[in-house]
Amino acid sequence: EPDVTIVSGLKDMVVFEGDDVTFRCQVSHENARDVEWKLQDVALQNNEMNEISVEKGKIHTLTLRKVTEQDIGTVAFRVGPHTSTA
């Protein structure tokens, strides 16, 4: 299986409390496995507050819904040994 790398990393975002924010990370190959999103070193799951999806096979997105002050911190996207943070 080819080594999947990060083509386009995460960008820092500033949002207001109560707003939604979306982070995008593009990888080199479709159907990447071993992918993980984290906020403040806590692994995120797809649920009503965190929407995790893949667009066009290579663009992985994380949308945090109705952010609060507790959501301040580092967002990390990892695929295999490669990581991008914002």
Structure description:
The chain is mostly beta strands. The chain has no helices and 8 strands. The chain has strands spanning 6-8, 21-27, 35-39, 42-43, 50-55, 59-64, 75-79, 82-85. A 4-stranded antiparallel beta sheet has the order 1-2-6-5, with no helix packed on it. The N and C termini lie far apart (28 Å). This is OBSCN protein. It is found in: Cytoplasm. Pfam families: I-set. One of its GO terms (cellular component) is cytoplasm.
Structure summary:
InterPro entries: Ig-like_dom, Ig-like_dom_sf, Ig-like_fold, Ig_I-set, Obscurin/Obscurin-like_Reg. With 86 residues, the protein is mainly β.
- Alpha-beta content class: mainly beta
Largest beta sheet: strand ordering: 1-2-6-5
Main sheet properties: 4 strands, antiparallel
The radius of gyration computed from the alpha-carbon positions, rounded to a whole number of angstroms, is: 13 Å
**Overall geometric form:** elongated
Query: What is the element string, with H for helices and E for strands?
Result: EEEEEEEE
Number of helices: 0
- CATH architecture label: Sandwich
Distance between the termini: 28 Å
> Could you tell me the mean pLDDT?
95
Could you state the CATH homologous superfamily?
Answer: Immunoglobulins
CATH topology: Immunoglobulin-like
Protein name: OBSCN protein
Keywords: Cytoplasm, Disulfide bond, Phosphoprotein
Subcellular location: Cytoplasm
GO cellular component, one term: cytoplasm
